Amino acid sequence: MLHLNEEQLLACQAPLGHNLVIASAGTGKTSTIVGRIATLLERGVAPSEILLLTFTNKAAQQMMSRLFAMFDEKRVRKIEAGTFHAVSYRYLKAHAKLTLKQPRELKMLLKSLYPRFVDYEQAYKPEYLFELYSLYQNQSVDGEGFYEWLCKRNPEHEPYALSYESLFSAFENLKNEYGYAGFNDLLLHYKQKMRALPQSPYIEILVDEYQDTNPLQDSVLCALSPKSLFCVGDYDQSIYAFNGADISIIASFKDRFADAQIFNLSKNYRSSAPILQLANRVIAHNERIYPKKLEVTKTQCNSQVRLFVYDDVFDQYRAIAEKIAQSGTQHADIAVIFRNNSTADGIEAALREYAIPSKKKGGVSFFESKEVALMLDLLTLFHNPKDMMAFVQVMHYAKGVGSALGREIYEELLEYGQGDVLQGLLAPKARRDRLALEFETGNVASFAAHPLRQSLHEHSAHFLSNLHALALNVAGIRNATALIAQCEKSDFLGEIFQTIAHKRALRKDMSLDKERYDEALEKIHAKIQILSHLSKNYKDLEHFLIAMVLGSNEMNEGSGVNLLSIHSAKGLEYHEVYVIDLMEGRFPNYKLMAKSGGALEEERRLFYVAATRAKENLFFSFARAHRSKQIDYEPSIFLKEAGFEI
DNA sequence: ACTACGCCCCTTTTT
DNA sequence: GGGGCGTAGT
């Protein structure tokens, strides 16, 4: 059951219209959102007319399961809930065929196009252009072109701006041709579709973490134009400027809607008084948009707030690990929070020395490992047999086949298969003008009889022959778990996995370390097992593949102490929190600040978010030097603002 | 023109 | 341990 205080209740019961709830850290905004939805349902709004937009899919799930406990689950499931991206995708997949691609894959696509359009020494490199373009898509308004946007932002690049624009126009065409979509494309396409609807599909849209809304997301809300908006956010927790998040969207709410109502949640239920006082002391250095009065409700506890200082970063990691080893707090209720993900490795290693289990947001290393990427590419290919990038990536493992030859083979097979690469492999048909090649059309029992066979070298032929056998074997399987199992035991993947393991087990003198080889092979299969395990949650291949792109960094491996970047700690809370590596330059991170304006205030908000994750014990630490890198550090300015004497 | 390999860099934050 | 870049080899 929900226990709401007066302020929360007032917000929940607001009439339909444009309502903004200013909810500081720990004031029960989740309960308020759940309470609001409950109120809507009780008032007779149909579940399918409610849209709940959250910042992570996990947050959406949590709120939904709280609703399941209060209402008939089957009925409440009709509420549309998720991130902007997930909601967009769910709608689009019913109306258009598209393949969601990881940013890194699209970056590769852009890179392959780049030399044809840009050839200047001083021009931006494709990697950076990709980031820039993504930022443009997120923060430009009203159909402003990339050219104008860039010239305004970076006038010194005006000479190249036209080449950039041709590059991106080719990029967009290519994406359309292959049916690829990036994260931003989901929102852009969805916005188009929503604009075309005669009336809004939703009566009320609830937006969580409204302070991190960017202009693109805001325009999606505009396109949806619901009768009622219920936005919840906290100005002081806006930390996504790098993704185009614009604080003025929340700040201008009352000016943009004539019927705007603002509610305030001021009772903090999470943190102890010393923690709140410290957080408020620091955030007070930012310009106030609206007055903030946070009331402490947890007055009865023996809370600790302390700073630890070390000579070297590794001393710090070790000492923190030792403190955690001696702490009486459950591991799962402890978090180590840092500004830069690179910190995670150091602290993780130190914790391992003390045999303390830890979990970090697993995403990156897992999904970028060769074996997992290959398995997913293969599954992608089975799901969409004309996916050029997936095919070429897979072909990379054939010796002597790079992106050019891979592309050529793709085109050939596409032709033989009339738009389906797997068909081209299994049942090649030639066009009339190609019949000169003289081969049997129709099913080819083995690759030896395939028309491509003669033009390939021994190894690539063997490679494609294995793929042929696998494709034959899995034809018709729609279930992700079954497909993974078939792939894993195929000769095709078996041989590639051996090659990968072999490379990893090579010593400097090029000799093979047999022990390391076995170990590497075992690790590969362990990762595939994790993938297989994950796949069991999805009813078909498509859902699984989408989840791997949309939700890959929402899952974490293992259990124990939580290792989190500040960004990923948003919305979470822990009994005991360690905020580490608080050095000038690293946090605040001046390198990053140089790229955007108002950055110190943003870094200060990050500090505020980090500090307010703690319920009871809050520990800060910094190191005076990184000896092996020969860097001396000053303590973070935020430690001084917090009132520590150093 | 394309691919393979060895040496250097290094590591922002998220959907 | 990975990716970018330059060079050698097909």
What's the helical proportion of residues? Answer: 40-55%
> How many DSSP E strands?
17
Average of per-residue pLDDT values: 86
- What is the end-to-end distance? 47 Å
Instruction: Tell me the strand percentage band.
Output: 5-15%
How many helices?
A: 30
Gyration radius (Cα, Å) is 27 Å
Structural category is alpha/beta
Biggest sheet statistics? 7 strands, mixed
Global outline: globular
| Uncertain segments | 432-441
Characteristic terms for this protein:
alpha/beta, 50% helix, DNA-binding, 6-stranded parallel β-sheet
Q: What do you see in this structure?
A:
The model is unreliable at 432-441 (pLDDT under 50). Helix 1 (6-12) crosses helix 2 and helix 18 (370-383) packs across helix 19 (388-395). Strand 6 (204-207), helix 11 and strand 7 form a beta-alpha-beta unit. The protein is globular, with a radius of gyration of 27 Å. The longest helix is centred in the last third of the chain and has 22 residues, at 514-535. The chain is an alpha/beta fold and 646 residues long. Strands 11, 12, 13, 14, 15, 16 and 17 form a 7-stranded mixed β-sheet that branches. It has a 6-stranded parallel β-sheet with strand order 3-2-6-7-1-8, with helices on both faces.
